[in-house]
Amino acid sequence: MRASHIVGIGLLGIGVASYLVIKNLSFAADQPHSQTVYKGIELIREYSIRSQSKSIEAPKNLDANERIRRSSGNYDAMCASCHLKPGVDKSELSVGLYPAPPNLSKERQHADPARDFWIIKHGVKGSGMPSWGEVGLTDDETWDLVAFVRALPQMNRQDYSNAIKKGMGHHHSH
Question: What GO molecular function terms would the record report (predicted)?
Fold first, then answer.
């Protein structure tokens, strides 16, 4: 058998196998991926975000109360419906999105300010997470949101409500 026939048969086999996999792969939000597919996507996504955010340096004043105050209204208006508020376990959006957005009011293992900054600024394809940098959030406003997200797990409902009342409301550059 010629080498070209072997290559042709191999390519045909790859094509048939690809068709069968793609044909049965659902992108419906109410039908989760298999564990293997989900882990593969998660691995690639995390590697990509980690490599693209590794040169980002967080500001020294990231934990400043002023940053948290400035960003409370933005979090409430732009993030809370998916990433939730203290004492809230789900929302219509958080239940309907797949993959489910993380509940940022809970403690997160391995939280990294540079990673959070990159995700807020650029968004994540296929996840429902928008690029807030595209709608006018400046780098400083993005760092303010990172500061708020870092403080959120230590807040209860009353702390959150007070932060919103003392904040600057929903604002950012357009």
Answer: electron transfer activity; heme binding
Q: Quote the CA–CA distance of 92 and 113 in Å, as a whole number.
A: 27
Q: Do 11 and 3 form a contact (C-beta atoms < 8 A)?
A: no
The CATH superfamily assigned to 35-166 is: Cytochrome c-like domain (1.10.760.10)
Structure confidence by residue, pLDDT tens digits, 12-49: 888 887 777 777 777 788 888 889 888 999 999 999 99
For 66-85, give the DSSP string: HHHHHHHHHHHHHTHHHH--
Nearest-angstrom CA–CA distance, 153 and 24 = 39
Enter the tokens of residue 43.
């691995």
pLDDT in tens, 64-93: 999 999 999 999 999 999 999 999 999 998
